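Q: Got a minute? One more chain.
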Amino acid sequence: MATEPATRGTGELAALVHQAWAEALGHDEFTDEDHFFRIGGHSLGALQVVKEIGAALGRRIPVRTLMRNPSVRALTEALADESAAPAGSAVKEAR
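A: Always. Here it is, folded:
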């Protein structure tokens, strides 16, 4: 079942993540809680997702960020935390 992407604050970030997933997966039949690799995602798709999101945000997103945060909601929260963190500080990723 497709969800409406959340409405750039956190809502815009969630919409960006949702769109990147839909392009990488070739469908938008997933919820914000679905696990990327359990709904058809694979390593090349993960690379596509982080490249697209990184280009939109103007920064490099390590693929491990998606691997450690494999839902739209978790990835959005991790990216928002990264954006809010002071330069040079470590950001805790969900496990």
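A: Residues 10-25 form the longest helix (16 residues).
Q: Perfect, thanks.
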